[in-house]
């Protein structure tokens, strides 16, 4: 089953109009003094529990806006 | 007339409150590890915990293709040994796994991809694995229905033919391994959902499940695509994206497709099952998720790709579509690790597209690792810390670009 995401500009649209931008993980760490290990941990490592997470999406086949939404990886659906 | 009576392949066992080894995940990797722990290493006090039914996840959802045509020596060696295990296991488990070594053909749609094929064939031949580069005409001889004309949007420039590859009946592998593990004393518990992992003083002590707490000395996370969710219970971050990959079958046709073929550019792989259906797939949803959702969007895409590559398939109907999880790592190679910050904790994950073909061989070496505590040499290339040291496996330097995670 496909599902819909809520674009802040266009409203509820089919998920295939969007590009997944990954988890919201706060600001990127300061490069100054960052060790290689910390850098790779930031760029590659993720905690993905089976519970709702805040994430980024791009409405590439629509209005072109980047936005954040909360979605449950266990159901694929957005949660309020 | 005792042979007329139905016989169970394996028997349910009472759930004990403590085991020497607990394995999370009743798929091919978990069952194979349990089987080898009991059979080869004499550790019979083993429980396999499966949240649904055995083979519910990727083990029963893949397209059953097996091959050893990886890019790097470390991977080729592992998959080659895995490929040779199917015949051995058929014998050992006394169960027909329906291994059909029909060979696989990877199509190339550009000169760059042809160079990729030449590089792969050289690597394979150097390691004693059969592979050869075919020109378009030879591709058409191997797979007669293929359109090798220049009518295609991406014409076929040739391909890599890998004769030892083929297909194995995936359910049979799950059942056969369950049979073998159970015969050696392993307890298999279905409907036993792991909800938490207990540790004390840096050691794993057990798991909390939907059927109560179960203690253990050693714990294996072998939950396929759900591995990252299980690891998250301990706060362990992994370089893994769990993504659904969709597959589908047509109605049965008379035998005409005698080999597996795949195309990176068209994003399709296909084989004809022994029942006659064309089993095909490859499309992956972009967002991380733990569902089994399938979509009409990819059904349409797959139909377009297949009908273009193989015009005779136009008008053939799809009967079923399903999806399973692929746990993608940035370098398309797995993670088999026993150094995760907790003594007694082992992880076998990140197999991406390749979890089925590697199941038995991964189980064999994870069992060795878990029983001795010493990392087998063949697993040295698959440590978690390679991602922190910028020492990626070279798998992605292959025929195709896979996706956004690599």
Question: Could you explain the architecture of this structure?
Answer:
The complex is a heterodimer of chains A (80) and B (406). Chain A is mainly beta. Chain A has one domain (1-25, 48-80): 2-Layer Sandwich (Folate-binding fold). Chain A is built from one helix and five strands. In chain A, the strands form two sheets. Chain A has a three-stranded antiparallel beta sheet, with no helix packed on it. A two-stranded antiparallel sheet of chain A has the order 1-2. The longest helix of chain A has 9 residues, at 36-44. In chain A, 15% of the residues are buried. Chain B is built from eight helices and 18 strands. In chain B, the strands form three sheets. In chain B, strands 1, 2, 8, 9, 10, 11, 17 and 18 form an eight-stranded mixed beta sheet that branches. In chain B, helix 1 packs parallel to helix 5 (170-183), helix 1 runs parallel beside helix 8 and helix 2 (73-92) packs across helix 8. Chain B is globular, with a radius of gyration of 21 Å. Classes of the chains: A mainly beta (80), B alpha/beta (406). Chains A and B meet through strand 3 and helix 1 of A and helix 6 of B.
């Amino acid at each position: 089953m496909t599902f819909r995401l809520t674009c802040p500009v266009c409203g509820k649209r089919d998920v295939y109009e969007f590009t997944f931008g990954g988890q919201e993980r706060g600001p990127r760490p300061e490069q100054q003094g960052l060790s290689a290990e910390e850098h790779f941990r930031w760029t590659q490592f993720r905690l993905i529990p089976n519970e709702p997470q805040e994430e980024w999406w791009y409405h590439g086949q629509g209005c072109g806006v980047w936005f954040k939404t909360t979605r449950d990886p266990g159901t694929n659906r957005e949660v309020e | 007339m005792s042979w007329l009576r139905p016989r169970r392949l394996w028997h349910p066992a009472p759930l004990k409150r403590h085991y020497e080894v607990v394995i999370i995940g009743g798929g091919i990797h978990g069952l194979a590890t349990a089987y080898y722990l009991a059979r080869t290493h004499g550790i019979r006090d083993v429980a396999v915990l499966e949240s649904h039914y055995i083979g519910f996840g990727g083990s029963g959802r893949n397209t059953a293709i097996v091959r050893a045509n990886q890019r790097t020596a470390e991977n080729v060696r592992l998959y080659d040994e895995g490929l040779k295990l199917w015949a051995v296991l058929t014998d050992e488990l006394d169960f027909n796994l329906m291994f059909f070594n029909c060979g696989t053909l990877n199509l190339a749609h550009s000169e760059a991809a042809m160079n990729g094929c030449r590089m792969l064939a050289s690597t394979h031949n150097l390691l004693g694995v059969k592979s050869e580069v075919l020109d378009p005409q030879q591709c058409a001889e191997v797979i007669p229905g293929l359109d090798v004309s220049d009518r295609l949007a991406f014409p076929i420039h040739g391909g890599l033919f890998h004769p030892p590859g083929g297909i194995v009946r995936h359910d049979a592998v799950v059942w056969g391994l369950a049979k073998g593990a159970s015969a050696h004393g392993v307890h298999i518990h279905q409907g036993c959902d792991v909800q938490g992992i207990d540790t004390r003083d840096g050691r794993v002590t057990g798991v909390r499940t939907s059927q109560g707490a179960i203690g253990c000395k050693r714990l294996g996370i072998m939950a396929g695509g759900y591995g990252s969710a299980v690891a998250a219970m301990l706060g362990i971050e992994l370089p893994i994206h769990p993504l659904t990959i969709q597959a589908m079958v047509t109605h049965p046709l008379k035998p005409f497709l005698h080999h597996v073929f795949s195309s990176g550019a068209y994003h399709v792989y296909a084989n004809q099952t022994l029942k006659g259906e064309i089993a095909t797939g490859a499309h992956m949803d972009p967002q991380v998720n733990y569902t089994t959702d399938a979509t009409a969007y990819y059904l349409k895409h797959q139909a377009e790709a297949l009908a273009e590559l193989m015009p005779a398939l136009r008008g053939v109907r799809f009967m079923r579509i399903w999806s399973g999880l692929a746990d993608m790592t940035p370098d398309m190679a797995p993670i088999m690790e026993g150094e995760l910050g907790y003594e007694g904790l082992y992880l076998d994950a990140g197999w991406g597209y390749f979890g089925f073909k590697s199941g038995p061989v991964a189980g064999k070496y994870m069992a060795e690792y878990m029983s001795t505590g010493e990392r087998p040499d063949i697993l040295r290339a698959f440590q978690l810390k390679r991602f922190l040291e910028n020492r990626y496996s070279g798998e992605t330097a292959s025929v195709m670009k896979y996706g956004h995670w690599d």
